[in-house]
TrEMBL record, chain A:
This protein is one of the two subunits of integration host factor, a specific DNA-binding protein that functions in genetic recombination as well as in transcriptional and translational control. One of its GO terms (cellular component) is cytosol. Signal peptide: none annotated. Heterodimer of an alpha and a beta chain. This is Integration host factor subunit alpha. It comes from Thalassobacter stenotrophicus. Transmembrane segments: none annotated. The gene is ihfA.
From TrEMBL, chain B:
The gene is ihfB. CDD domains: IHF_B (cd13836). It holds the Pfam family Bac_DNA_binding. Belongs to the bacterial histone-like protein family. Keywords: DNA recombination, DNA-binding, Transcription, Transcription regulation, Translation regulation. Signal peptide: none annotated. This is Integration host factor subunit beta. PANTHER family: DNA-BINDING PROTEIN HU, INTEGRATION HOST FACTOR SUBUNIT BETA. This protein is one of the two subunits of integration host factor, a specific DNA-binding protein that functions in genetic recombination as well as in transcriptional and translational control. HAMAP family: IHF_beta. GO terms for biological process: DNA recombination; regulation of DNA-templated transcription; regulation of translation. GO terms for cellular component: chromosome; cytosol. Heterodimer of an alpha and a beta chain.
């Protein structure tokens, strides 16, 4: 199995094939979808896409980290991180599709 | 925000499109990502993040109720890594 990397271009190509808008407009729609999802997350909202998965924002408190290369201690400030929890459907399809 | 709210936002922004076409567009995007990962491919969306597939090796697990050892087969799981731009935006650094 040779694995490849898809990009925005492949997603807009799929939209182009499916709906028959221009390539340019298809690309804009892909961009709008990603932007609205990002904006909601930046507002601290959860983004829950049924049968795909859930993106949520978690608050991490400050801690003392370490530079793994030098061993030096470095403070890590409090920050917000994004986690993605795949739906059961996605997990099942990924597991089945990649079975040896 | 849920799928239907996302569809509504896109529909509001594109009044020249039929609602059902907006639904198809949004569904196509998510379906394409799942299909790619089911094929073992990676989906890289600069600024947003990357979806990839990680292999989990076979291991000896345990039935938590009985404590019996059970073989767990090798499997592949979806993985998402947040893009740099979105990670920065989450922490208040708007480019």
């Amino acid at each position: 199995m040779t694995s490849k990397t898809l990009t925005r271009m492949d997603l807009s190509e799929a939209v182009f094939r499916e709906v028959g808008l221009s390539r340019n407009e298809s690309a804009q729609l892909v961009e709008q979808v990603l932007l609205h999802m990002s904006d909601a997350l930046v507002q601290g909202e959860q983004v829950k896409i049924s049968s795909f998965g859930t993106f949520s924002v978690r608050e991490k408190s400050a801690r003392v980290g370490r530079n793994p290369k030098t061993g030096e201690e470095a403070p890590i400030p409090p920050r917000r991180v994004l986690t993605f929890r795949p739906s059961h459907l996605m997990k099942d399809r990924v597991a089945t599709g990649n079975k040896a | 925000m849920i799928r239907s709210e996302l569809i509504q936002k896109i529909a509001d922004e594109n009044p020249h499109l039929y609602q059902r076409d907006v639904e198809r567009i949004v569904n196509t995007i998510f379906e394409e990502i799942i299909e790619a990962m089911a094929d073992g491919d990676r989906v890289e969306l600069r600024g947003f993040g990357a979806f990839s597939v990680k292999k989990r090796d076979a291991r000896l697990g345990r039935n938590p109720r009985t404590g019996d050892a059970v073989e767990v087969e090798e499997k592949h799981v979806p993985f998402f890594k947040t893009g740099k731009l979105l990670r920065d935006r989450l922490n208040g650094h708007e480019d």
